[in-house]
Specification:
mainly alpha; 2 helices
């Protein structure tokens, strides 16, 4: 009887393991495994998508900030160019004024020397006449 009981128990264990192996290879089990694997892949892809979307959003913010800086620098460059043009015009005007003043000074110096020469001649004539008298 011990042999028979052992044989029956061995048979039941073998049948149970065969049934479990058969269930593991059944189409439902394979589909369950495939579905589980797909769900895991979907979670992974969704996580990667969320990470990439966050990176894209940050890149868009950075781009907007840089575009604003470019616009501000472009505006500043235009203002600077206008200021430079204005300063060049002022400089040219002042150079013209300096040239006019230099010409007037030269003319005044020449007139001062001419008057000094006349005064020296008159003084020499007066001194000569004073000696004669």
């Amino acid at each position: 009887m011990k042999k028979t009981t052992a044989l029956v128990l061995s048979s039941l264990l073998l049948i149970g393991s065969l049934r479990a192996a058969d269930q593991a290879n059944s189409p439902e089990a394979r589909m369950r495994d495939a579905l589980r694997n797909m769900a895991m892949q979907l979670r992974t892809v969704q996580g990667e998508r969320d990470t990439l979307q966050a990176a894209k959003d940050q890149a868009d913010l950075d781009k907007k900030g840089l575009e604003d800086k470019v616009a501000a620098l472009t505006k500043q460059a235009k203002e600077d160019a206008d200021n430079i043009a204005s300063l060049k015009t002022q400089s040219a005007d002042k150079d013209g004024k300096i040239t006019q003043l230099q010409a007037a000074l030269d003319k005044s110096d020449a007139e001062g020397r001419r008057i000094t020469d006349i005064a020296n001649k008159k003084e020499a004539e007066r001194a000569k006449l004073a000696q004669q008298v």
